[in-house]
Amino acid sequence: MKHNITAVVGAQWGDEGKGKITHFLAEKADIIARYGGGNNAGHTIIAGGETFKLHHIPSGILYPEKICILGNGMVIDPEVLRDECERLKSRGISCENIRISDRAHIIMPYHRWIDSCQEKKRGDLRLGTTGRGIGPAYVDKVSREGIRVIDMLDEQILRGKIHSNFIEKEELLRESGMNEKQVFERCLGLADYFRPYVADTSLFLYNAYKDGKTIILEGAQGALLDLEFGTYPFVTSSSSISGGGSPGTGLPPYAISSVVGISKAYTTRVGTGPFPTELSDNTGEHLLKTGIEYGTTTGRARRCGWLDLVILRYAIRINGINSLAITKLDVLGGMDSLKIAHAYSHNGKEITEFPSSLQVLSDCKPVYTELDGWNENIRDCRNADELPETARAYIKTLEQLLDVPVSIISVGPDKDETIMCSKVTAAAH
After folding, report:
1. Which of 3, 23, 30, 43 is catalytic?
2. Which CA distances in Å does 37 have to 90, 118, 196?
3. How far apart are CA 54 and CA 19, in angstroms?
4. Alpha-carbon distance 105 to 429, whole Å?
5. Residue 427 pLDDT exceeds 50
6. Domain span holding position 183
7. Which of 23, 229, 339, 404 has the greatest number of beta carbons closer than 10 A?
8. From the centroid of its chain, how far is CA 315?
9. Known catalytic residue at 163
10. Marked catalytic residue, from 15, 77, 140, 308
11. pLDDT at residue 428, as a whole number
12. Could you give the number of structural domains in the chain?
């Protein structure tokens, strides 16, 4: 059987540019499937001078001949998804190629209310959630109180499940202003909108796999936000690593043949939690403004710092990353020198493996390798040979220190501002 499934995953704290890279790779794929998260994701695509911001819908949607699947591992806010579909349609983008898993769970209005209330109560210990109801929806899923897409299509089941949830959450919802009947009627109307798109996507994907179709599994968030392996508790509520692609779609684990890890040429993080290479100086401000580092979903400014190879080494291991896509290399232009953290210093000892303890991570200081920068504008470069020698040396250093090839370099936000760079190592001196 042909091995034809690639997982595209974030190798940092999210916001790495997965939308652009997935869109770039999707041109030669048949199916693009999201397998986790919900509308807390913000995947931006710039193509033909137009900007598209996606939250639920996979980044292959601009290709009308590609099938875009919202997998069973996602949590879906039907109101937000409907609005997302309508915005795309108003811009001439068809959504007829979308398939929604009948097993995906639904984000209900009360999940958003609970999310907001819980975050406020945490005070200084807040997690920095997007407030979209993602966590509470996954909590209901795990506690077997969730409502799935298939449930939404059955009026009697939907009514019963909403009723039991309102009883279960009575105290939490007392001040919300919501009532059971209104929530039921809103969901019922949305069910009719999405009914034509709902399918057994696990079966669809497996049959496509057997038929030799090329499939991209599009991850959301990043390795350091994974529920199991991220900087817990400052994580998302689902699996954001490549291993989540199997339970999140129903495809067998052996079907995933390659994993592309996406990393910026520097590091960013949104919200609270330790960040060893964070820069609070003019360099950090340069990365913020030049990289336009503001969240697609929340609009929040991202914290910026030098590239952290301890994080990348960890992400490569837990994801099984075969190759890297380095995004926003152009943002580093105009800087005389660049730094890469190849290790941490902790209590006088050098460590190269990412610690599980947040206290240890908070006490770690980066150990840097310093490289020369470049002043040239590289956004018109379309192959590795056109990059400045110091830019090629930067990429070569990453390959040597991480022992993983860089297969793609993004030199600008547009799809065309991309280099397929299998010869980067040979081109650098």
Report:
1. 43
2. 25, 19, 22
3. 8
4. 51
5. no
6. 105-194
7. 23
8. 14
9. no
10. 15
11. 38
12. 3
